[in-house]
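Record minuted for everyone:
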Amino acid sequence: MWVTAVAFGIFFAGFFVHLLVWRISLPTRQTAALVVIFFLSLVGGMTTLFACVAAGYATPFRVWEYLHVILFHLTLMFTYLIVYTSIEERSPSMTLLVFVHEAGKTGRTREEMAGVLTGIAPVEIRLRGMVRDHLTVESDGVCRLTSKGRAWACVFSTWRRFLKMKKGG
């Protein structure tokens, strides 16, 4: 039980820092900022845990329990990162979902739903994000992968081949 409590405590400390930083100033590279915040919360949490054990304020954990805390935190962190990227930039599906939710029990007509998507260019939003995150560079209307972009493309292509997935989106 203590392992779970410590792991959740470390994660929620990082989550609190995340909320605090976002309230002060929204980072340009939000996903990278989240990785740094949650990694530093893990380091800080584990350092605090070791200090509490050394001072006699906490019962020493066995090695596997420390590893369990680390693995649990990393799992929570990566899960949160995946969820966060889906809400960072509004997708058409998310926009429609929120729009219908805001109508309550009355719902929305198909025409209202089509109208809310007018002017949204999801591909343009993603392209700007790829340039912002240094995955692509754009010159003369042509997008080219950076070395970072090529590395990620290689990872995803290899993973898709491994899973025997069809090409495409």
Q: What stands out?
A: Helices lie at 2-24, 30-55, 63-88, 92-103, 110-116, 122-132, 147-162. The radius of gyration is 21 Å.
